[in-house]
Amino acid sequence: MGYKNTVGVVVLAGAALMAGASLVPEDKQLDPAWVESLTERGHALDRGVVGSVKDDSLKYIGMPVGGIGCGQLYLGGDGKLWLWDIFKSNYRREPPSKQGFLVSSFVLGGHYAHPVAQGDPYSNSNGAEVEQGFLIRTKAGTKTLDRKGFSDIQFRGEYPVGRVTYAEKGYPVTVQLEAFSPFIPLNAKDSAIPATVMSFTVSNITDAPVEVDLGGWLQNATCPYTKDPMLGKRRNQLVAKDGTVSVFSTIEGEGIKDKHGDGSMTLTLLHDTNEVKVAGVASLADPVALLDQVKPLNNQPAVVKPLDEMLVGGLSAGFTLAPGESRTVDFAVTWYFPDYTEIDALKVVHRTQDSRKLFRGRRRFYSTQFESAYEVAAYLASDNKLLLQQTRAWNKTWYDSSLPVWLLDRSFIGLDCIATQTFHWFDDGRPYAWEGVDSCPGTCTHVWYYAQALARIFPELERAFREEVDFKPGIGFEPQTGLVKDRGDYHAKGKEAVDGQAGSIMRAYREHQMSADDAFLKRVWPNVKKATEFLIQKDGDGNGLLEGKQPHTLDAAWHGPMGWLSSVYLGALAAAEAMAIEVGDQDFAKQCRTILDRGYENIVAEVFDGEYFIHKPTEGVKALNTNKGCHIDQVLGQAWMHQVGLGRIIPKKETVSALNSIWNYNFAPDAGQYALDHVEIESAFRWYAMPGEAGLVMTTWPKGGAMEAIPGNKLRSKENPKVFKGVGGYFNECMNGFEYQAAAHMVFEGEPDSALVEKGLAVARAVHDRYSPERRNPFNEIECGDHYARSMASYGVFLAACGYEYHGPKGHLGFAPRVKPEDFRAPFTTAEGWGSYSQTISEAEMAAELAVTYGRVNLKTVKLNPMNLAVKTADVKVDGKKLKTKLVKSENGVSVEFDAPVSVAAGQSMNIVLR
Question: Which GO terms describe its molecular function (predicted)?
Fold first, then answer.
């Protein structure tokens, strides 16, 4: 018999997970309905990220709704804001404990195995407890806009926009909340605003007029970590100016400012005050009785209270709704806490003096734009709320797609880490990042090179990472050796990671492609070349394989040739060759190509076992290894080539065989139980897939060799699993970022709607299902820390589904959809603009459209895949004006070349018809 788990996978109880040749069942017994949902946008199982108060699926939801590098603030499933980590300190305020950092990162999988619910003690351990909320009053009574006030609450998360709907039987209105921070792809500056917009749409569902009062309150939480009245006071002032009304919360007293820095907050009504009746109060005795305490503004005096007393202010908007009428009222919470100030001297894991020195004296980037929270609010309200409009335009563009909602959701959610304490943007323009929230410092190269989302959405930030960190002498780069240090300036003495080094080179090429011209490449090329030479020196015989000591992201150094690290080395050579050609360094391009050609042959001859790529450990070296095992990253270098359009560094036949092997041997319908059942391989001590959950396991040994992977593991057994206490190889784990890169590669290598595409989507969908709101926070993908950066590899799955390729300086854009190409639509980004791409294919013609929503898209060529259509002509128009073109056919599509460069601006469309 079997049982069906919550991802729609039938698990054969007791038989599928035996040690030996059948470590993972080759026949996955996937539920046909679940398989169908992988590609169907409106399938019954394809609900996306939703939750309901009725099924108790709101409690774990925490969507980041602050700006880039502005701290961390969650939108809860019921619309309440929680986890207020927007204040001064970058360090946690409590010792490691059951609810602290160690649980989040290491012990038993932390917040994956033990998810945090809104209102749990941990929800305030990283920030302050802030009294805040909204409520509504009609003739039927007053209700708070949360789970206490309404019995029918529905949540829908479309990062960066969260939507919450409130209804109650017998209540005359419904309310929909849209909550977000300004988020505009290609505009990082305006997406790094310390603000959360709370936009409420109230609808009269009766046949009579309804008078409505809608209000909100916010505690003055400036300097929340002290209550010493001798240090200063808190001050609330109602400010009505420039079409906005704010409760402006500040702090007074030189003592408090000297110790904790300056700071301010606002609760602001962004709505046109001529359309609603506005009232406010600077000090509330009872927030829930807000609407009985607010008064007309009329120059109300400021209220000042000592630090040991709570100070709360509020605003309300009154209006009348005709039968069936709706009205939208926009509030905003803004803050200004730009200084990194140590609150205590506590040292916990990874909080060394080196990392403290890096933050000391720095400010958040938003301090270069604003001097108070009120200035933030005024900026939000300016230009007819253009920032809100452009955020909504992106949200609409992203979801106006033929791709399934689950894929659109999961592809983008990983990017939310930049709106948490994982990511920091300093006032000197330098970005800095942990691996996860406050975990593992130094903008780690061997983690961040898996990420694909940031480079395509905010390319200026990834360019800054390359220029201000990886390839900047004194920070991440050693010009005398060419080493790209694995953690930037965190370590005084540089440390090496082979994969991170190669990844930085490949990323440099990607960042060049996401630029409008070649200026970035010219700036970084000298150091990129040195970094490539650093890797070439490790290939002593120039055979295209790395064979010596190879430190990498699995916190170890492996020895001997293998598919994984040699493939990323070849990928770095391919990227370096492409860059060398573009800057005119033909000699170096030729050197890279010579080694590439050797590696292309040798990687198959030396480490392909006929099914997949293995690791040949160096004899006599006692170190971690995968030997005959099937490793998840074995063809990662080729996966990267698809991301940057550089062709093959590993033959397709062997690559596809390896990917099918990863599916056959590593995709476990019950990955959590697999880890428990195979402690003889490695102790299960971190959980990213619980028993009953499917996932792609890091390494399995279908042909033996597991006992040789970890030196000394013969001492370990199921009966005595704690003998081994080292780091191990993370072999039994499911880690999202690794799974996503393999999934993306499967989709890229597969023909449209093929079995390999299906397998890649299934891998990504399994991760999505593991993060359903019934189980844990769907917006917090966890590895070694919350909001783990490697999960931004999920965007690569989206790019693969689109068959996207782009080169900004060359003006090249291409699409070859792998999912239902006959009727396809999806968003796209370029260096200077974004919009929607759509295509239809019939027996007679292919019609494609590029509709630009923001900025402009500059093009010289567009490459398409008309499938089996025999194309003879191309008709191209921009806003009805026909363009002169040349049609060039290739093995995997056709390219339309324009006689002169074409610029398609926002509001314009390019239409292409191939016949």
Answer: beta-glucosidase activity
